[in-house]
Amino acid sequence: MKSINVACIQMDVLSCTKNANISKALKMAKEAVSKGAELLIFPEVFSTGFCYEDMEGSAETETGKTIIRMCEFSKRNKCILIFSIIEKDSNSANAYYNLAVCIEDGEIVGTYRKTHPFKKEKQYFSPGNSIHPIELRKRCLKIGIQICYELRFPEIARKLSLQGSDILVTIAEFPAPRSNIWKSLSIARAIENQIPHIACNRVGIDNDSSFFGASIIVDALGNVKAQAKDEETSLCYELDLAEVSCARENIQVFTDRRPELY
Questions:
Q1: CB–CB of 211/176 below 8 Å?
Q2: Which of 24, 88, 114, 142 is flagged as catalytic?
Q3: Alpha carbon of 199 to those of 90, 126, 218, 261: distances in Å?
Q4: Which of 17, 57, 84, 253 could cross-link to 100 by cystine, CB 3.0-4.6 Å?
Q5: pLDDT at site 132
Q6: Rounded to 5 degrees, what angle do the CA atoms 100, 48, 76 make?
């Protein structure tokens, strides 16, 4: 693929209110699709928020309500959706994961369990144990996914890039007052890996935090191509994927690496 039209669905998330969150997300997604968006990114645990008071009621398997409705939308609109949910481990009654899901044209093509839970999350979520890009089936594209706090770990983005990712995606509930950190790290992950980076954050408040939005789309050269403010919006941009090879030919970061030293 030479280019792809992407969108961040930056939305407020009502805690433990699944139906309303999904309906709003899909309404915003429909607007983005009408603008030509083909790859749509949603905030972390967008359908429930971190519903710690009712993890059992909020958690789903891959056959749950959230994924079913997202698959239906993706199939109907022939698009790619990336988001995360609270996953209930079907093999353990007390295990939950923050599960990122990638759906292409109505089918789940890959998942990723957050490997680095943040602070309070450690009390409720088990960490995933695998970092790998997701390869789309109908498009020649690999997508590397990281979740929120993992933006602070350059090792994750580098591993995903070394494994052949064409686009880096971050889905997040990144709270105030860390907006400068969010922007700086989002740009840095793109620059150091010479890869486009789509970072989608939420807005609004929950019981513990407020959220500033500032979803951002950065190209492989580290240029900010689009950035949202602090309100609900569908942030769209057409990414030039050919810039990856141009950037890596011009400044040969990957060729010049000396992993034997580090």
A1: yes
A2: 114
A3: 30, 23, 8, 31
A4: 84
A5: 97
A6: 60
Do 10 and 200 contact (CB within 8 A), yes or no?
yes
H-helix segments, the chain: 18-34, 55-58, 65-77, 154-162, 179-193, 243-250, 253-256
Whether residue 93 has pLDDT greater than 80: no
Q: Is 44 a catalytic residue?
A: yes
Active site residue 148: yes
| Domains identified in the chain and CATH numbers | 3-256 (3.60.110.10)
**Residue 88 has which token pair?**
């209930």
99-153 pLDDT, tens digit each:
999 999 999 999 999 999 999 999 999 999 999 999 999 999 999 999 999 999 9
- Beta strand pairing status for 39-41 and 80-88? parallel
114: annotated active-site residue: yes
Residues 32 and 104 sit within 8 Å (Cβ to Cβ): no
pTM: 0.96
* Contact between residue 110 and residue 151 where contact means Cβ atoms under 8 Å apart: no
Catalytic residue, chosen from 51, 79, 102, 148, is: 148
The continuous run of DSSP H or E covering 145 comes out as strand 142-147
Q: Which residue among the candidates 44, 121, 150, 173 is catalytic per the annotation?
A: 44
**What are the DSSP calls for 58-109, one per residue?**
H-B-TTSHHHHHHHHHHHHHT-EEEEEEEEEPTT-TT-EEEEEEEEETTEEE
Encode 12-29: b = buried (16+ Cβ within 10 Å), e = exposed.
Answer: bbbbbebeebbebbbebb
Three-state DSSP state, 174: coil
Cα of 223 vs its chain's centroid, Å = 19
